[in-house]
Write a structure and sequence with these properties.
This protein has about 550 residues and is an all-alpha fold. The protein is built from 21 helices and no strands. About 75% of the residues lie in helices and about 0% in strands.
Length: about 550
């Protein structure tokens, strides 16, 4: 089960970055010109929104029902999202598919980490947590490579059809190895679901033989002046079937959502979604806060305040009382800083390569591979080290190594990427950041109650992703401020070499900011404990009836 779930996590992680090389083709596929890049940001931010905003709810559900059911449900959501994305010919449909992919892919992570908590006692979780962290980072490495390989022989839609095939195969394996048979829906729900898939697929695909036929093409004709394939008779029928399916199956899941604190999930999701859309949709060259940010941030703040009020007053809150305490609270801080440092390297190493080494985006991306390959190796080493060392020691040492490497990178200039020393530094930074991945999860799981491992894992992942989104916006804004200051001070603002030097200053500033984030994470790691703690986990021991029931 853990092996299958880990492969699924790698698949979802790959999908986060798979659009890097396919983005321009995807824009063309939904009618956007190459000059409308800003309009295409929802393709990326939509995935992040689904990934982050719903994670706490899925983590809570993973604590209430069998992990197997959560994994299968998330994989099926991922499959449906991939199919919608593959069929999309308009931006709203494409973004909807990406949001569903994010929900399904993101939900796999807390369920998988919770499986580790079920199968291993606290003192032995380090290595399996390192494995999960490693495969997630391997997926991030393989995403662009997978996208490039598919684009070499087919178009961008094939990327997502292959996701459909892989997701279905993994769901079948989870069912086969899960230990307990899943309850099979029968009758009306199955018929409605099958009809919704067929009719919805036809509406989005609009096969030429049907859509252009004088008689059979009538259901595919858009209403009024619309050109949307959804706003057609067959599209509305598909939506009606989906609504009917929701109504018919509501008795099966509504009670579970209420038990999971659906109002709290909506409030916390609204707060997280406001943060994601504020910073992920911004144009770094002009703004830190996105175009709707000044409206979204107050809404998010109100939603967070209401959630905190509900957390204190409701009998069973979304995040159980006692989850965010002690080392779990510190884990969130460290994870936030790790996310900020990680994204700074991922984004700005290719930028520096384009400025000083090559004009090819592909070659620049391969420069980053040195770092990306080191991160999963560091994750494995970090997990293995927890056998003898405390969480804080492993995380702190790793982030101090990353800090030192990032400080060196903040002094990189034209030609710095040419020599072997660049590879050494990138590998050390990757190893250092990777070392911190398993300890933060280990500490959060060890200090969380046994019935809250899913939501505890979800919060750690959310903190890291928020760190990436907010960290990228803030560090890029600071770097661009230095860039414009440098350009303004130039005696000749048309001097190409001087402008190149100003661009390098921008990248150096971002690396310096990332070094500060890594250092803050190293300091915060002291709160995770420098010595290996005795087995004091609140959870059930490996092989116990409780852990077996949660798995099945």
């Amino acid at each position: 089960m853990l092996a299958t779930a880990s492969v699924a996590v790698a698949l979802a992680a790959a999908d986060t970055y798979v659009v890097v090389l396919a983005l321009t083709d995807m824009m063309t596929g939904v009618g956007l010109g190459i000059d409308a890049l800003q309009k295409a940001t929802p393709i990326i931010s939509g995935f992040l929104l689904g990934y982050i905003a719903v994670l706490p709810l899925i983590g809570r559900l993973a604590d209430l029902v069998a992990r197997q059911r959560i994994l299968v449900a998330c994989l099926m959501i991922f499959v449906v999202g991939s199919a919608i994305t593959a069929l999309a010919v308009e931006l709203p449909v494409l973004v909807t598919g990406r949001v569903l992919q994010g929900i399904g892919g993101g939900g796999l992570v807390p369920a998988t980490l919770a499986i580790v908590a079920d199968l291993w006692p606290a003192e032995r979780r380090g290595t399996p947590l390192g494995v999960v962290g490693a495969v997630q980072e391997v997926g991030s490495v393989l995403g662009p490579v997978f996208g490039a390989a598919v684009l070499a022989v087919s178009d961008w839609r094939m990327i997502f059809w292959l996701n459909v095939v892989a997701g279905l195969a993994l769901a079948a394996v989870v069912v086969a190895v899960g230990g307990q048979p899943l309850r099979r829906p029968r009758g009306i729900p199955v018929a409605l679901g099958a009809l919704a898939l067929v009719v919805g697929g036809l509406a989005l695909a609009a096969p030429a033989r049907l859509a252009t036929d004088v008689t059979l093409g009538v259901p595919f004709v858009p209403f009024g002046d619309s050109t949307s394939r959804v706003l057609t008779p067959i599209g509305l029928v598909a939506l009606a079937l989906v609504l009917a399916l929701v109504v018919v199956t509501a008795p099966r899941w509504w009670g579970l959502l209420r038990r999971a604190d659906l109002p709290g999930a909506v409030l916390l999701g609204l707060a997280l979604g406001s943060v994601v859309l504020t910073f992920a949709a911004s144009d770094p060259e002009r703004e830190v806060v996105g175009p709707l940010g000044f409206a979204l941030l107050p809404v998010g703040a109100v939603a967070l305040g209401l959630y905190l009020w509900r957390h204190r007053t409701t009998a069973e809150p979304l995040v159980a009382r006692g989850v965010v305490r002690g080392r779990a609270r510190t884990s969130l801080v460290v994870s936030l800083m790790v996310g900020a440092a990680l994204v700074a390297v991922i984004v700005n190493v290719p930028v520096l390569a384009r400025l000083t080494l090559t004009d090819s985006q592909t070659v620049a991306a391969f420069v980053l591979v040195r770092f990306l390959l080191a991160v999963p190796v560091g994750a494995l080493l970090g997990g293995w080290s927890l056998r003898r060392c405390g969480d804080g020691l492993v995380s702190g040492v790793g982030l101090l190594v990353a800090t030192a490497g990032l400080l060196v990178m903040s002094g990189w200039e034209d030609g710095s990427l040419d020599g072997p020393m660049a590879t050494v530094v990138l590998v050390l930074v990757g190893l250092g950041i990777g070392l911190a991945l398993a300890p933060v999860n280990n500490a959060a799981l060890a200090d969380a109650p046994a019935d809250a491992h899913g939501v505890a894992s979800a919060l750690v992942v959310v903190a890291r992703m928020v760190g990436m989104v907010v960290g990228l916006a803030l560090l890029t804004a600071i770097g661009l401020h230095r860039y414009y200051e440098t350009v303004a001070a130039l005696p000749d603002q048309t001097d190409t070499k001087a402008l190149l030097a100003a661009g390098i200053v921008q990248v150096q500033t971002v690396f310096l900011g990332a070094a500060v984030a890594a250092l803050l994470g190293a300091v915060a790691s002291l709160g995770l404990g420098l010595r290996r703690r005795p087995a004091d986990d609140h959870g059930a021991p490996s092989g116990s009836p409780l852990s077996t029931a949660r798995l099945g």
